Amino acid sequence: MAGSAVRHATFAKWLRRLPLFRAGPRDAQPLVIGNRRIYVLPTGFGLFIGIALAVLNLGSLNYNNNAALLLGFLVISLCNNALIGGHLALLGLKLRSQRPEPVFAGQPLELSVMVSPRGSEPRDFTLSHDTSESVFRLGAEPIITTLSLPTEKRGHLHIERVRIATLHPLGLARAWCTLNLQEQALVYPTPQGQDLNAYFSSAETGSGRQSRQHSDQPHHLRTYRSGDSRKQIAWKPSARTGSLQVREYEQGDADALLLDWNRLGHLDYETRISQLCLWVVQAEQRQRRFALNIPGLRVETGSGSEHRRHCLEALALLPHD
User: Fold this and answer.
1) Residue ranges per structural domain of the chain
2) Most exposed among 26, 108, 152, 190, judged by the fewest C-beta atoms under 10 Å?
3) Which fold has domain 2-188?
4) Using CB atoms within 10 A of its CB, is residue 277 exposed (0-12), middle (13-18) or buried (19+)?
5) C-alpha to C-alpha distance for 289 and 293, rounded to whole angstroms
């Protein structure tokens, strides 16, 4: 079953390279599904029923059996209504995607889509992208369903489109519609390597006393930036100026770490990136100030979640070796 899904995904990727099957431009959101966006094709079970009905009708004509003919045409009319029912199940649905948050390579990327119904009748739908799919039941209230997309390498993950489909009402045909996302999700490098403390312990030896001597002496005030600790806010100057002011301490740069690409010459290209990624994560968790030096870019000393995001983004977008 898993091998079949992989083969189907590989064939779908090859098919999308052809001009006729490429995803169109990004859809304006929310997308309201109209008649021109819905496709309906029979399932395997539907094909079997179609062949059985064809045999039934041919045999009825051959033997001039009116009762069998009546039964055959009655079932054909029910199947036709099932095709129309699948089309109507999708018609009028409203889709809105939410921008996925960055993740580390190897972790699933969570893509959320809000689906709003047109009516109140409960129906089962499937949201899918390549090998990932989510089955949900939609009633009278909007629902947010999430796809877990696999990530293998750092950088941008391009999500062209997702598909919403249904087998409603009898499973004879699959009705589907595609939402062209053209979304760029960011995947950070995998954080792995030597622990931060183990690598920088010798460089910090002997500096603790000097740092403590200046820890209570503010060097200057600056405007508040996202990610700054509340303990650094100077409330009285902030009240005078009308904007948040943050204290910069003399020991800030003395205790700051330099995460330097050039000090990791013994590691290969991607391993260096993973090692620096681990140190960025650990430095932010331990509330350490740090700077990042990588080829073509130096991120100045800072701290907090915004500084961490900036550094991880820079590592993720480094050229591939």
Assistant:
1) 2-188, 196-316
2) 152
3) Immunoglobulin-like (2.60.40)
4) buried
5) 14
